[in-house]
Write a structure and sequence with these properties.
9 helices; Structural Genomics Hypothetical 15.5 Kd Protein In mrcA-pckA Intergenic Region, Chain A; 5-stranded antiparallel β-sheet; alpha+beta
């Protein structure tokens, strides 16, 4: 199954919270949550109490949509987290946070993760001086993400930086200048995640 290309505001309405899938638009009165804070669909008033499975599923779907990953990718990260040492839920979130598209977004090089993926796919950024066009590329501590020194790349990223007022997380460092770049100073921890999530529910759901 390919990537979802339909309206994404329905995901925010379904979860009842802003997932910031449209970048700066989500911070304006045009946001779907601001205009209509109700689940999508015709029969929202007939829905009863959510089952235990439904609670677990919604937590997984929320994280999946937030980072923009497909079901197979998400389960792959979960398998990797279960094999790793430490808390599986925290390892899962760290893996998702280390994705190149997420880091490009967190550095404000892209207004949303969808735009960040497009920037990466079109070859506008490099990692440690080499072109990387894979949004799911996992970064490591010490990696340097730099915008390509060409007019189109610089114009695109500088435009996103000008419109953004998001703070850079502690595990990243951004150097503003003629050629913007960011550095992964350390691996992300649980407190670096900007999304409120109960990781234990996801682990319980996918480890059955």
């Amino acid at each position: 199954m390919g990537r979802y290309v339909g309206p994404v505001c329905r995901f925010c309405r379904r979860e009842g919270m802003k997932l910031f899938l449209k970048g700066t638009r989500c911070e304006t009165p045009k946001c779907a949550i601001e205009r209509r804070n109700s689940p999508p669909g015709m029969h929202q008033s007939r829905r009863g109490k959510m089952t235990d499975y439904g609670v677990h599923l919604r937590e997984k779907q929320k994280v999946k949509h937030y980072y923009g990953v497909l079901e197979r990718q998400f389960r792959g990260y979960m398998k990797q987290a279960l094999k790793s040492k430490g808390n599986s839920g925290e390892v899962l979130m760290s893996l998702l946070e280390r994705r190149l598209d997420n880091v490009v977004h967190r550095l404000s090089f892209g207004q949303s993760r969808a735009q960040a993926r497009q920037i990466i796919n079109h070859g506008h950024v490099t990692v440690n001086g080499k072109r990387v066009d894979i949004p799911s590329y996992l970064l490591r501590a010490g990696d340097v993400i730099r915008v390509k020194n060409r007019p189109k790349s610089l114009q695109l990223v500088q435009g996103a930086l000008a419109e953004s007022n998001r703070p850079v997380p502690d595990y990243l460092s951004r150097i503003d200048g003629e050629i913007p770049e960011g550095i992964v100073t350390r691996l992300p921890e649980a407190y670096d995640i900007s999304l409120p999530v109960q990781t234990q529910l996801i682990v319980e759901l996918l480890s059955r």
